[in-house]
Hints:
The structure holds 2 protein chains of 2 kinds. By secondary structure, chain A is mainly alpha-helical.
Amino acid sequence: MNRSRLRHSIGVVFLFSMGAAAASREPAGQFMRTQPAADRPVESHSRDVGPNSRGPDSESLAEPRTGFGTRGGVEAGPGVAGAAMGEPLFGTPKETGRGNTVPPNSSSDPTTRTPPGVSNTKPTAGARAQPYTTADGNPRAGTPASGKTTSSGLRGWFNGLAAGFFVAAPGKVSPGRYRPTPPPSHLSTWSRLTQVATQHPVISILAALGAIFAAGVALKAKRKPIPPPTVDCALVPGVVRFAASHASPPALHILCNLMEPDGPAIRMLRRTSHV
Amino acid sequence: MSDPGLTISDLLPMSPLHVEVALHKFFAEGKQEPVPLSSFFTHTAEKRVRDVLHIRLLDVFLEAWKQYRAVTEAVESTRASRSTAVVKVLEHEITVTQHPELQIQWAGKTYAALRLDLELTAVVHGANLEITAGTVRSVGVGDVSVRLGLKYKDSKLIPDWESEPVNIPGRVNLS
């Protein structure tokens, strides 16, 4: 591998790392335990919140889930439309569309470690979200009840990629704390499979490695090796010159005749001059 | 010079011809986008130059001798009568210039030709040409001294080289 290709490969890995880092700026669901800002809507992991929940946690009953891990992400907030926002993170058979609820004091959910009836997060002032229905009772656009859903494949892929990186990264979240999130029941089979698959750290890592490998293969296929230059040679004839160093034989002959005392040249000269 | 099949390429020195000097100068002029010059490339270019100069020396001499008036007259006279004439040429000097042109191609692009100048000067101490039916059939050559130079524009690629006078014994059949 030559230097340019090595630099290219390093660049591809760097770009993927940057993408993962950019994706990690969003809360990473159960893999991140970041404290959201007070003015931002937060997710309320209220799947075990029921009527018997106490105190402020009961507020989350009426709040659709927002934030990372839901399809709305942190952008979800009052007035923000979209099927993703407010969408429950956990689908249950009795999902009401107004938050993930389970029967009170239910501890049958194996995915949670919080005591029944206790929310594992505390809502903030900005955690208010729009209900799924408008004031006149019609489904709000973008809510699951409206029937309009958006695909979360790419976003989920990046989320999963970021989760994979964070799980693999030391000092963040240990892989043992990974708990897969059941996909919402209203999603299609493919979407549910995708969501589950992308949240699995091993699959995410494998997907990231596969993407890097595919990018490398694509770059290698795209960049054909340039053949070395070729050189050929042709001969252009030049000039051939002949230069006699001495007088030619006829000239010598004439000169010798002229020099003879009784030669023809001398005789001719005698006749013309009457010598 | 004992080999009658001696070529100009044989007269070139065994040392490198320094074609890379011409290549660097050629691309340094800025008229052409430079190509990666590897040692393999320059070696190949030098080999191409040697190959193209595989010209028999007596063929070059014969072309020069045909410029001599006595030889042209003998050729004309023997062509009609189909007789044989022998022409003696005393000491003379033959100057030959050849231009090996390197044609470079890279990445689908053909570059302008790089023309080298080879100048060969031979001092021939007499020659005897047998001309039959308008054709020089054989030649006997006396001592020959050769001076050779290869350059690109004003840059000499090899130092001027001059051989010692050598004798070519016997007659060499040219046809």
